[in-house]
Every structure is written in structure tokens, then in C-alpha cells.
Amino acid sequence: MYLAYGDFFAQNFCVHSLYFLLTFYISFAKLVIGGIHMEKLRKTLYDVLIFIVSLCITGSISVSNVKTKDTSHINLTVDETARQQEILGWGTAGAWWPQVAGASDNAEEIAKLLFSKDGLGLNIYRFNVGSGSKQNPNSRLDPDSWKSTVSFLVYNEKTGKYEYDWSQDAASMKMLDLAMSYGCVDSVVLFSNSPHFSMTITGQASGGFKKHQNNLKPECYQEYVDYFLDITEHFIELGYPIKYISPVNEPQVSWGGDDVYQEGCHYDTEELFKLYRLFAKSIKARGLNVKMSICEVSKITSKTFDYLTYIYNDPELREVLGTYAYHAYWSDYNYYLKTLWGNSAKKHPGIIYDMSEWCELPTRFKNQDIRNALRMGQVIAMDMTLSHPSMWSSWVAVSEGDDYGDGLIIANHDCSEFRLARRYYATAHFSKFVPVGSHLISCTKDVNDRYGTRKKKKLECFFAFRSNIAAYLTPEGKVVVVIVNNDKERTITFNGIDGRDSLKLYTTDSKRSLELTYDGDYRQTVTVPAYSITTAIFE
Which of 432, 440, 276 lies closest to 342, judged by CA? Predict the structure, then answer.
């Protein structure tokens, strides 16, 4: 879609390479001084290799007749016949907030905003299977924190055993029921950040006492499998559409150490796939009609590529693989890395790719700042057009306070008060108008509107573009084009959209929130406001 940048990079490859190598050698020196282990050094070098290869691959691409000076007008060419991935849905994670929001007077209103057609219409609900930190008397997490969770497995003092109590986590179950009641949710993913605390080496669901330490007891691997599948069977018996389960989340993260902040469990590669194989065997033995989401790595690194190749060549895991899930943190504007990952995914056909977690890290913009909506809109558009996932989910739907740039809704501690973040509307531009069964279609522009050579603190800004555009063909035959314009006002001429009589434009900018700004006859040329997101619907 943005191949024009290849010309620029091909001309400036040496400059950028020298800059990157200098940065790398400085980092390398710091790592050596810090006494890094050889395995970590290998990983660092491999990540650098991936990065450089990605620059070489995309830098060699050229596009003729590309305008680079005047970016105030864009000629956009849409090809409905060039269909790419099918869209299977938009979602969010029910981590932490449902156990508070579900018990509040605002539970129904919050659920409606997220999961109804009048709201975002999200169809994927990622239900967090809590690991019991709130019930653990020795937990290092604050029991009053949202991030401290309740488990269905509780200690029975009379029997001296851990037993299931399905009345636990009632608020989260209420929120799930409310979400289901609006008729949009067709896929519930059960995921957990850690095994139950009783199954861990440290007796904690927040990780090891040292970083990068496996925390699942060696003798509890099968016990954890049985526990998670027992919960899965219970949810299925209750009638919830459990399509996928994800018992491991961000396995490569260090999790633990002196400072803990949420539930999480580190797994080395060998231990991770040992656990996955046990799940595969047990799912088959139980005859469960459910698939797995693997591997939920936190960002696109060497692990993302390695795990995909490993799973693709393992028949036992392929049999239970439902989606290859990954997270897109720390690569927000990285055109090259997202493209490289998308190219790798194409070499492994027959797999559904799921971008299952993203939020703004680090948090740069206030929740009511239009820039946080623009950032999210750009990330979604780039992910969909470069990495080609069929499913895209944000991280927590509701966050407590303004400290983090993650929630679509911002609430106080007990959810008695809440407001919508601007990210909510960025999500809406996709989720409300691109239904399940739509296909991404080819969409190319005739300008190279990267940010240029102005000084930036982050190398990632070399990759950013002032506009990111994604086009879709819906099952009803509508053409939906989402335009994220992170620059001045522009005019856009649409080419290749034939046989449509009408046009609707929905706009979000500093003054408007998903406002219907045009509803009338077909127009080939439209104007999009400065620093805005516009969804154009051609019927």
C-alpha cells in the first residue's frame, strides 16, 4: 500500500544503516557491561538481523510515477477484485475491569457501549480466567487492585483441597452475560495470564522471584491443563460460544522479580511447547470442540517468527491450532517490521492470524486528546494492511484512571463514574462499519506522505506516514474505506469504486466524535479534515 517509501529508503539506506548500527553498538556495550546472558545476546542479535533484513527487503521495492511533493490531494485506487484476508471480528479483553464494572450500577451501560450495535458492536470477548491473586493470602499484588483477580478454584478448609466454586467471579460473569445479551458477540476466548497461584513455584500468580524464571511447577503441567479445560467445559455447558482458549499469555516476558504489577508467567521455549502438547492431547482425549490460540507473544520479535515456524511444522499442534495470536506492542508505526511479519505469515497459509492485544505504550497522549485516537487508528490500519490479521482486539476495554493509554472507556475505582476515551471512536470507525465476513481489498495511493526528516526522538518515526488507509468489501457489497489523516486537510479522489449510488461519511476529529458529516449521492472526490479519522461507505 505504501511501497513508495521504498524509493526513499533505497536512496538513504546507508545513512539509516549507519545510524542504526551506531545505536546498536551503544546498546551492545550497555548489554555487555550489564552482564547479559548468551541466550539474551543471541536473541538481541537475531532481532537486529530481522530488522536489517526487513529494511533490505522493503527498501528494494520501487513504485513509478509517485508524487512526493504535493500531498494535499490523494488519488486513491481501490480494486475490489484483489481480496485479501477475511475479517473475523473486532474485540477487546475482559481483563480486570469486568470484576469491578460488573458489580457497578453502570454495568449495563458499559456493556451496551462495547458490545451492542448502538455501541462498538464488538463480536470478540476475551474473558480473563483469573489466577486467584485476590484469594491468595500471600499474594504480592494489592488485593484491592483491579489487576488482582478471582479464580473459580478455591481452597476448602473442610476438605483441605482446592475445589471449583462456580459462584466465584460473579461480577465478571454478569458482564459476560450482558455482553452476550446484545447479540453481537459470537466468539468468547478464554485466556489466562498465569496458572492458578497454587500451581506455581513461587505460590504467586505474578511471576517468579527472579525475572525470566519458569513459574509453573514441573509436577503441575497436567494439573494446569485439566484445570483450564474443566473451566472450558463448564463455559461450554453454560452455552457460551467458546471458540478458542489461550492458557498462556506473553510467555517470553520476564514476569516477576522484585517489582510485580500484574499476573503473568514466564515460559522458556521448551517448557512452553511441552505445555501446549499436553493441551493438544487432552483436548483430543476429551473430545472438546474448541481450538487453541497460540502463542500470544507481547511484540513482534524473533520469537514471533520462530514459534510460527515451529507450530506450522508440528502436526499435533496444527490439529488444535485455531489462531496464531500475537500482540503489536512497541511497533506502532514500524512499517518495515509489520510488513516483514505479514510476508512471513503469507508463507504459512491455512492459519488464522489474530492481533489479540494492543494499547498505546508508552502513553503519550491524554485520553481526550485526538492524537490518541489518531495513533490507534493508524495502528489498526497499518496492522490490517501490512500484517493481515483476520481478528483485531484492543487490550482492556475499561481502564482505571488516566495513567495508561489502554482503555476505550476511562472509569474511577468503582466504575461509578466513567467517560469515553478518544480511542473509543477510533475503534468505532472500524468495528461499526466492517462486519464479520468482510474482506480487506487492495487500496493504493499516489503520494508518498511519510513524515520526512524532521528530528524525532524515536527511530520508529522514520517509518510513519501522514495518512493510513484501509479498504474493505462487506458481505452486502458495500465498499468501506477508513482514512486516518494525521496531517492537514486533504482532498481524496476515489478510483475503481463502480456501481455505487450513495455515500456516507463519518468523521472524528478534535471537535467531532463519529459524526455523520455527509449522507447523499455518490461523490468521487471528498475532503477530509485535518487530523481526523473518516470512514467512507459506498453503497
Answer: 440
